[in-house]
Amino acid sequence: MDIGNLIKEYLVDQEDGMKKFLTCFLNCVMLFEATQQAGAIRYERTGTRTARRNGTKKRSLRSLYGMLSLDKPEFRDKPFKTVVFEKYSRIEKSLINAILESYVQGVSTRSIRKVMEKMGIEGVSAETVSNLGKQLDEKVQSFLHRPIEHPIVYLIIDAVYIKVRCDCKYINQAVLIVAGIREDGFRELLGVQIADNEGEGFWLSLFEDLKERGLRGVQMITSDGHKGIQSAVKMSFLGASWQMCQVHYLRAILRKIPKNRQAEVILLVKSALNGNEDLLPEVAAKLGRMGFQQAANTVELFMFDIGNYRAFPKSHWKRIRTTNMVERVNAEIKRRTKVVNAFPSRDSLLRLSVSILIDINEEWVTGNRYLDMTEFLDKQILDAESGISSFPECPVVSIADQ
Question: What is the pLDDT of residue 396?
């Protein structure tokens, strides 16, 4: 039983990998039971043998990860008894907890061997466990330090917070994620960093690393309104525009509005988005007249950063004016880490996060083109020749009387 290959498969496809691991583990449990009940291992000549083996019989077992096909041992002289089928729910729960613990604590050879032995899987050498950890870390570092070969037009950045054990306490750590849309229209996950928070220094460090690896051509960065991100973007990408994510913008405004009035405010703000951002001063004024001055102040605070996406092809607008592209990545990280509750170290969090990002990135760079860049490239040529933008302006509709 090659633990390394099973965990590799788990990294690629969590559900299928867990299904294969459960199948292998439960087969090992039954083989161990057969040895105990027969009084000897297979083909062993000993006076303590009480039963002769008669091959195996296929048995199906339904689990949380689908139907498992198990090999149940058979005896010639007496029936074989197993706890696998009658007490499976308890075994499965223990197994899931154990495999997750071994996975996130991959840096500790002793811990993994101890967990595997509790699972009834013996004979796992220290070398095998150590090599598995090295392979995972090498894969992570290779991804984090690979050169960025294509020009990146749009950067979409965001963070997700995961609980990590630090000494004797548990703290939230930020997983900073930077994704890009390349000049050829494909998406690519460019970098990730585990940080204490979203402060300017952490983002600056990540941006500098990306530039050292070859990041170039950035024309717009989309993120939430965190001050640390704004400062880092201004310092790192001179000449590029910053786009406040419209979803975060709306949420920031609604936080200043009573729940019973939010529905009408949502309609009011949305009427000044989606290409009509020039109308936001009117929205701020109307919110002030409605008695929501704090919300009006929020509208004004990001007024000049909410419509920068309009400088680019209209076919791109829907996908570059929000951080939704990375939010989906964050959701996948949360989905696949929620059963862990808290990671034992930053290294284990980085290992799992990057493994997830590697899978997603492979789908992005080998899948369908995310944006059609033809109009963008044509505009680049036109601007170089004449300096005149070829993108149509959006119609402006007054909402003063709404």
Answer: 37
pLDDT at position 107: 38
More confident residue, 333 or 320: 320
Q: Which residues are bridge partners to 158 per DSSP?
A: 177
Burial 205-224 (b: 16+ CB within 10 A, else e): ebbebbeeeebeebbbbbbb
Task: Judge whether 312 and 220 are in contact, CB under 8 Å.
Answer: yes
Q: Look at 7 and 362; give whichever has higher pLDDT.
A: 362
pLDDT at 156: 97
358: phi > 0 → left, psi -120 to 50 → alpha, else beta; which?
alpha
In a 10 Å sphere around its CB, with 0-12 CB exposed, 13-18 middle and 19+ buried, how is residue 75 labelled?
A: middle
Tens-digit pLDDT profile for residues 15-57: 787 888 888 888 888 888 888 888 888 777 777 888 888 888 8
DSSP sequence for 77-102:
SS----STTTSHHHHHHHHHHHHHHH
- Using alpha carbons only, give the angle 254, 259, 260 rounded to the nearest 5 degrees: 125
CA distance 57 to 304: 70
Instruction: Work out the burial of residue 122: count CB atoms within 10 Å of its CB; fewer than 13 is exposed, 13-18 middle, 19 or more buried.
Output: exposed
Q: Give me the chain's average pLDDT, please.
A: 81
Burial 90-117 (b: 16+ CB within 10 A, else e): ebbeebbebbbbbbbbbbbbebbbebbe
Q: How far apart are CA 173 and CA 157, in angstroms?
A: 16
How does pLDDT run across 331-372, given as a tens digit for each residue? 988 887 765 667 777 877 888 788 888 888 988 998 899 999
| Gap between the terminal Cα atoms of the chain | 69
Which residue, chain included where needed, has tokens 């990671």?
Answer: 343
Residue 238 φ/ψ, nearest 5 degrees: -60, 135
What are residue 323's phi and psi, to 5 degrees? -95, 20
- Give the count of beta carbons closer than 10 Å to the beta carbon of residue 376: 19
Question: What letter would DSSP give residue 164?
Answer: E
